[in-house]
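so my prof wants the structure for this chain in the tokens format not the other one, which i didnt know existed until like an hour ago. anyway here's the sequence
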Amino acid sequence: MSDAGGAIGQLASGLGTALPALLVLVWLAVTAVLSLVGVGLLMVPGVLSALHALAGRERARLARHGPEVVAPEPPPTQLRLALVDPTTRRELRWLVRHATLGLLLGVLGALLPLVAVRDTAFPLVWKLAPADATATSIGFGTAESWPDAFAVTLLGVGWIAIILGLSPGMARLQGQPGRRLLAAGPDTDLSLRIAELTATRAAALDAHATELRRIERSLHDGTQNRLVTVTVLLGAARRQVARDPAGADELLERAQSAAEQALAELRTVSRSILPPVLADRGLAGALSGLAAECAVPCRTDVEAPERCAASVEATAYFVVAEALTNIAKHSGAGQAAVTVRARGGRLGLRIEDDGRGGADEDGGSGLTGIRRRVAAHDGTLRVTSPPGGPTTLEVDLPCGS
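here's what i got, hopefully its the right format
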């Protein structure tokens, strides 16, 4: 069922590029015709730019529903260069297929759930329909009795069976031309992408080392010192218990207090590694807890129907926690807002405040740490913080990494 639902979503999302593909194809045909009289030559750079931009959108869409489609080098927009450019030729072949077969499959993906619901639920509304109204969604038959109405329901069940059985294959068929024709060819220089992945790996290692140093520092400077105090106090109490029981009891109370503080610090450190609230309440509940504890009034709006990988949710939790801490300490804001959306295999975070703005990554605001944690998942961070505010942090993370 989940595979069919994801396939229907993928087919419907294909309309977002298939409809523009049809427009670009028509534009391209008009340009070709007008080029015979010379006027269309002026339109060539524009239509080629639109083609390349649309191909980039399709690569991003396919990456949200499966493996990344590695983009080739930016193709040219000049006519003479485009005529001999293999990337442009592949994009033109994709354009024709996506504007025809891809558009048809997208329309089917959007219509099939509607007709399935309509026919399945027909017995609930058939009494309210006009007497001569068509009973089925495909335009034939009239319902004059309850058996006729339930026969339409059987058609709706048939639509559901088609959705469950065929929609995954339809989604693959729709995406296949893009994955085959829009990916970088074997002769393409992938050094830029390799450099990006190398930088991402370095960021992940750096973030991991920074996290280990933070944990070690917390244990060494806090918990270890508390435990040393407990040991010293217990030794002193043991030596004093015979000659001064009252003094030994006071030392034991101090040792118990130090032990309780050490336990509390251990819990704090363990929660910072992977907050248990994420497993108990999910990302929405965990972020609601952060917002409730924030010194600045903060509202949350979380739409994440599917759980992401634990490491991704932990990173999202860390980003929001660090951002809200910065807002409370530095922004002078009166209110803040956290918005989370999980769609198409991506997790988007948006943290806003109405403070004074001017956030600086080099000013010790914690933004560098956030950027490293996000980069470790091959995500992106965008900070908008003009002087006078407001400040907005936008984070995009892959759900499955």
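also thought this was worth mentioning. The two ends are 23 Å apart (CA to CA).
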